[in-house]
Amino acid sequence: MEPQLITITEYCVNYDIEPDFIISLEESGIITLTILDTEKYIHEEQFTELDKYVHLYYDLHINIEGIDAIRHLLGKIDQMQNEIADLRSQLRLHQ
């Protein structure tokens, strides 16, 4: 199965957002865009995360730097939750 791609323009029209927002996310390293024939595309695997970023930016008025900080902190939380689950598992073995 081929990966599903959507142009930035098409995505922005469908979600009523500015293309500059998507470009800013890419420039900040928050998302990765695919370039085919000089057109930039968003990969389907990023749609869920991109929807979250759109909500943070447009609904909650959080800037790109804030989105990046939130993304980083949520990643740390996930990492710590996994570590806690592993430690609990080890603890059960020793009890």
Quick summary of this structure?
This protein has 95 residues and is α+β, with helices and mostly antiparallel strands. It has four helices and three strands, in the order βααββαα. β2 (33-36) and β3 form a beta hairpin.
Which descriptors would you attach to this protein?
95 residues, elongated, 3-stranded antiparallel beta sheet, Multidrug-efflux Transporter Regulator, Chain: A, Domain 2, alpha+beta
Question: Could you explain how this protein is built, in words?
Answer:
Strand 2 and strand 3 form a beta hairpin. The chain is built from four helices and three strands. The chain has a single domain, classed as Multidrug-efflux Transporter Regulator, Chain: A, Domain 2 (Orthogonal Bundle), CATH 1.10.1660. The longest helix has 31 residues. By secondary structure, it is an alpha+beta fold.
